[in-house]
Write a structure and sequence with these properties.
29% of the residues lie in helices and 15% in strands. It is an alpha/beta fold and 195 residues long. Strand 5, helix 2 and strand 6 form a beta-alpha-beta unit. One of its GO terms (molecular function) is oxidoreductase activity. Belongs to the aldo/keto reductase family.
Length: 195
């Protein structure tokens, strides 16, 4: 299959899974360790149909440590592609795991492929760069390898992950998603990476 190869010595990665070549020539492992941790929202849709949850981005220390430990275990098992997102509140723990592996000499930054995602409250084009900077700050890294729009459904800009209208329904926004995509794929991208 064109654009698909086996990882190994030629990429200096430990895992032996497949990777795919991206349009800019870089290789991305097709199997990733996902850092989403299931959580429930107060007033979720099952308890209150038609209403939107209002959870804020989490920073609980025990959760961050759980993510750190799980990510380190995944790296020890050979994962080299890690998938995260602002929504997951896991990027601080992921970044800690990466830095520990860098510090002990097990891995270098170029050995890893990190994917993050732009959350729905940051779809206004002028908010894309600040959102990326938040992600980089949580990770304490200089760049991410892939930055996706989490989903093509926009919420009004807010501190809450799921902002609500006065009646409790989700506060949707209608930015031009082509402009959002251009801001995510253009302004921050340097040499195939988002910095």
């Amino acid at each position: 299959m064109s654009g698909l190869k086996k990882l190994g010595k030629e990429t200096n990665l430990q895992n032996q899974g497949a990777s795919i070549q991206l349009h800019d020539g870089r290789w991305m492992p097709v199997v990733a360790f996902g850092t989403f941790y299931p959580f429930t929202f107060p007033g979720d849709s099952q308890a209150n149909p038609g209403h939107c949850a209002g959870t804020k981005h989490g920073t609980e220390k025990s959760f961050i440590d759980d993510v750190r430990v799980a990510t380190k275990m995944a790296l020890d098992l050979g994962y080299r592609h890690v998938d995260g997102a602002f929504l997951y509140s896991s990027e601080t723990g992921v970044g800690q795991a990466f830095r520990e592996k860098f510090a002990d000499g097990t891995l270098k930054r170029e050995d890893l492929f990190y994917t993050s995602k732009l959350w729905n409250t940051f779809h206004q084009p002028h908010l894309v760069r600040p959102a990326l900077e938040k992600t980089l700050s949580f990770l304490q890294m200089d760049y991410v390898d892939l930055y996706l729009i989490h989903m093509p459904m926009s919420f009004k800009p807010a501190e809450e992950l799921f902002p609500k209208n006065e009646d409790g329904t989700c506060a949707f926004d209608q930015p031009d998603l082509l402009q959002t995509w251009q801001a995510a794929g253009g302004k921050g991208k340097v040499g195939g990476r988002w910095k």
